[in-house]
Amino acid sequence: MTNFSYTVFIVLIPFFTFLVLGLFGNKLKAKLSGLIGTTALFVSFMLSILTAYNYFFLSEKVGGAFQKILAFNVVWLRFTENLHVDLGVLLDPISVMMLVVVTTVSFLVHVYSIGYMHGERGFERFFAFLSLFSFSMLGLVSATNIFQMYIFWELVGVSSFLLIGFYYQKPSAVLASKKAFIVTRFADLGFLIGILLLSFNTKTFDFIQLTNPNGPAMLTGAGIGFMGLSVLTWSLILIFIGGAGKSAMFPLHIWLPDAMEGPTPVSALIHAATMVVAGVYLVARLFPIYALAAPAGLHVVAYVGGFSSLFAAVIACTQYDIKRVLAFSTMSQIGYMMLAVGVSGYGGEHGLGFMASMFHLSTHAMFKALLFLGAGAIIHAVHSNFMYDMGGLRKYLPITHITFLIAVLTISGIPPFSGFWSKDEILAATHEFSPVLFYNAVFVAGLTAFYMSRLYFNVFWGNDNRVYHHKPHEAPFTMTIPLMILAFASIFAGFIPFHNFITSDGLPLETHLEWSIAIPSVIIALIGIGIAAVLYRKESELPVKISKSFGMLYRGAFNKFYIDELYFFVTKKIIFAYISRPVAWFDRHIVDGFMNLIAWVANYVSEQIKGFQSGKVQQYGFVFVMGAILLVIVFAYLNKV
Amino acid sequence: MLFEGIPIEYFLVTSTIMFFVGVFGFITRENIITILMSIELILNSVNINFVVFNRFLFPGQLEGHFFSLFVIAVAAAEAAVAIAIIINIYRRFNTIEVDNVDEMKN
């Protein structure tokens, strides 16, 4: 048996970096602090690779299945003998995969940030926050129990908040960071209630016990019902609300587009590759209990994911801010992952969706990080976020152009890039489950190809003769090297035999390419790209005309279907006006009024009697003499009687 | 003896009147010197009481006499200090009306 106790350092090294940079960052030279952060992440990255190698190739298997290994565990809070919160590192196929994905992307983003953030104010603060985020995310994926996951879940929320609001002098960034924090926090309330319900019914926080398919957790709570579903199902749906908030699923997605106010490397790391897939990871982590004890909860996941993917893809077709297009694309792709994990069953052939979801998660992390970092390089060159400020950039940014093109083809699902393989598995898994979701997913694949190509053609082709104030220049090496590495990963990640490593029950799964699904999906993707090429390859009036002909639909999608306005209406016009205002009035007038009355009485009485303390000795003397006389009279009278 | 045959009540009434005249003066007067004089009146009324009670109740003893001498000595010292203070107050405020000396109050 291999000893895995060193894995705890994968998590702890970024934490120490955070402490060093957070406490002494302002005393260090900017370059040095960047170097410290990057080196630490590199060590974590190497350790993760080592762990993956040891786990997948050297660790013992039981009956051919990968085992869950408790690499490190300490009891952190002991309330009673049975109720205790542990902190530790749990290794199983998905957590090892996530360790590799998170450290890879995080390391590359660190390298990229050295170039991108060069000369910015708060350079060392940025790296301190990045380290904090890496620590939290690694703690989240390696959680041994659901409570540890919740703790780190909140920590990633905090680091996301800090990084979105990195430019804290910009009001829009401050608003966006608040929005992200409040919306996800609101969703986390569901998560917390779900944890309490789940652990109350199963009497454990521990993932190994919770997800043991033959364990007692599968049986408990199944009998008790509430509104037609078992309590276990309800608790899992509540937990999924937390996951939906973090993963920007409809209708809790409103924070993700605004989160693009943060620096672009942050968008790549947190809001594309790692944190936003935490919701998918959460469902995958609890997958056995979802699939075996609460299939209805899993169907909720599938339908929410499917709808979100369509919803976001439609909006993405109409946006002009390139980072927002990518944000909606992220939401759409995460919807895909949710869909895949939601349609999956437990074990064997039925577990295809689970494997596809994890596969797509890791390929998506690579190509979406690549897209965001590419977008960062474009913004770096043009100093604008908007497509209509760009055009013909392929001449100025050759490396960015090629890597971006690779990413676009990958996300569109063109073989042999990695996106094709993972998307194909998802479509195959969905096909077995429900035709409606399947056609929805295929349509979304077409839309994805269309809006990504629209972005690509608008930025790199379009108006070739555009005149720029500053001649756009290619990004420095620290930025282009991560792009090249990620492009490389995007091309070849699809050839990893994922089905041998990551499956719902730990046993290898036989998969084969479904030609009947792969060929139509590729054709649809090509159609999407073709339409985009016709419309945007050369500047023309056509796109405007077409958008006019869609009328209502176009305007709705352009305004993100007014979901933000709906939220504002509900919060401001209904909750604030009819609940908060009366409550505030009661507080201000009744509760405060009572306290003010007491203060007023004390004030009034002291005002009346303050004249007694005049400081005039003569007055005191008068009162004293009068008092003495009074006493004499009283005692004389008493003695007489 | 000079006061042979005068009953004790006469002395006590006199000293009581003196005492209350002193108290009245202390309370009502504005002028610090008058207040000081009122205090002297009070002290002297007390002295009379001492001497009278000593004479009538304990004719063979002298504690009351000594006490009144002691009071006179202390009163002299007190008057010296008080007048020094009054002079300083006058230099500082150009007045010896107690109501006008209220700088520390507000």
Poorly predicted sequence stretches spanning 5 or more consecutive residues of chain A: none
> What's the end-to-end separation of chain A, in Å?
104 Å
Principal-axis shape of chain A:
globular
The number of E-state strands of chain A comes to 6
Description of the structure:
The complex is a heterodimer of chains A (641) and B (106). With 641 residues, chain A is mainly α. Chain A has helices spanning 8-24, 30-58, 93-116, 123-141, 146-164, 171-202, 207-210, 231-246, 255-258, 264-273, 278-285, 287-293, 295-316, 322-343, 352-382, 398-412, 418-433, 435-460, 477-492, 498-501, 515-536, 542-550, 552-558, 563-609, 617-640, and strands at residues 61-62, 65-66, 69-78, 84-91, 225-226, 229-230. Chain A has a two-stranded antiparallel sheet. The longest helix of chain A is centred in the last third of the chain and has 47 residues, at 563-609. The A-B interface holds A 615-619, 621-622, 625 and B 23, 26-29, 35, 98-99, 102, 104-105.
Salient structural properties:
A: 641 residues, two-stranded antiparallel ribbon, 25 helices, B: mainly alpha, 3 helices
Write the layout of secondary structure elements.
The complex is a heterodimer of chains A (641) and B (106).
Chain A: H1 8-24, H2 30-58, E1 61-62, E2 65-66, E3 69-78, E4 84-91, H3 93-116, H4 123-141, H5 146-164, H6 171-202, H7 207-210, E5 225-226, E6 229-230, H8 231-246, H9 255-258, H10 264-273, H11 278-285, H12 287-293, H13 295-316, H14 322-343, H15 352-382, H16 398-412, H17 418-433, H18 435-460, H19 477-492, H20 498-501, H21 515-536, H22 542-550, H23 552-558, H24 563-609, H25 617-640
Antiparallel strand pairs in A: 1-2, 3-4, 5-6
Helix pairs in contact in A: 1-2, 1-4, 2-3, 2-4, 3-4, 3-10, 3-15, 3-19, 4-5, 5-6, 6-8, 8-11, 8-13, 10-14, 10-15, 11-14, 12-13, 13-14, 13-18, 14-15, 14-17, 14-18, 15-16, 15-17, 15-19, 16-18, 16-19, 17-18, 17-21, 18-21, 22-23
Chain B: H1 8-28, H2 32-57, H3 63-93
Helix pairs in contact in B: 1-2, 2-3
